[in-house]
UniProtKB/TrEMBL annotation:
UniProt similarity note: Belongs to the methyltransferase superfamily. Arsenite methyltransferase family.
Methyltransferase domain segment(s): 81-228
Pfam families tied to this protein: Methyltransf_31
Enzyme Commission (EC) number: 2.1.1.137
CDD domains in the record: AdoMet_MTases
GO biological process terms held by the UniProt record: methylation
Designated name of the protein: Arsenite methyltransferase
Domain of life: Bacteria
């Protein structure tokens, strides 16, 4: 029995609402199924360092922006330049947006889109607290972006597209908002083997925990090609199994998914 797209979105929205409303000392860890599994800022930073963020990056954002979420560091492959306009799909507490805002400078802008009102409120407050003015956080679904056509140079996303029940539509929208020559710099999970039925059908834990929504590399390649992207590079990171296995301890999910970088260009 298939689960409706709206039910999937609502389940994901409810999970991240809980994370957004928690005190900054008790966020979620990575894309794990546990809310509140990181007890301190040091715990969150430790998780993010495993994902590839530097200590300098972690110390450069307002308190409460880094929620310990994600499965990689899209900043590392984005090659952002001063003056560029950057869009973060599923911006959460604003972590990647704030890092991007530093790189693009006052002449550039970082836009974050998130479908959870509580996350948008949190990221906006973080921007105020950090006196960061070249960011803009917008409420919306990544399948229906509140962003103008051909207005974006670079799209970032960190372990969010897997949560969408309509991934081809996400890439269609990404292509629409990118300028010609614009690029994708995405970290996300990819499927390396067919998931067991009990994990695949677990909406509460596996889907909203960035597991059962993962696509295979051939499927992602096809979605990107069908929506017009070129120069597609999808690079799985076997070393990510070290932290992915902690998302559902004992379930050996690292045998089925790994983190990957996903890059492509709008011709």
């Amino acid at each position: 029995m298939s689960i409706s797209n709206d039910k999937i979105r609502q389940n994901v929205r409810n999970r991240y609402k809980k994370i957004a409303l928690q005190d900054v000392s008790t966020p979620s860890c990575g894309c794990s199924s546990e809310v509140g599994c990181c007890d301190t800022q040091a715990d969150r930073n430790s998780v993010s360092e495993q994902l590839g963020y530097s200590a300098e990056e972690l110390n450069a954002v307002p308190e409460g922006a880094n929620l310990g979420l994600g499965c990689g560091n899209p900043q590392a492959i984005a090659s952002l330049k001063p003056g560029e306009h950057v869009l973060d799909l599923g911006s959460g507490g604003g972590f990647d947006c704030f890092l991007a805002a530093r790189q693009v400078g006052e002449t550039g802008q970082a836009i974050g889109v998130d479908m959870t009102p509580e996350m948008v409120s949190r990221s906006r407050q973080n921007a105020v607290n950090g006196h960061i003015t070249n960011v803009d956080f917008r409420l919306g679904e990544i399948e229906h972006l509140p962003v103008a056509d051909q207005s974006i140079d670079v799209i970032l996303s960190n372990c969010v597209i897997n949560l969408s029940p309509d991934k081809p539509q996400v890439f269609k929208e990404a292509f629409r908002v990118l300028k010609k020559g614009g690029r994708l710099a995405i970290s996300d999970v990819v499927l390396t083997a067919e998931l067991p039925a009990d994990i695949k059908n677990d909406l509460d834990v596996s889907y909203s925990g960035c597991i059962s929504g993962a696509s295979s590399i051939p499927d992602l390649q096809n979605m990107l090609e069908q929506n017009g992207f070129s120069q597609i590079e999808i690079r799985p990171k076997d070393e990510s199994k070290a932290f992915i296995k902690e998302w559902i301890p004992g379930a050996t999910i690292e045998n089925y998914i790994v983190s990957s970088t996903i890059q492509a260009v709008k011709p």
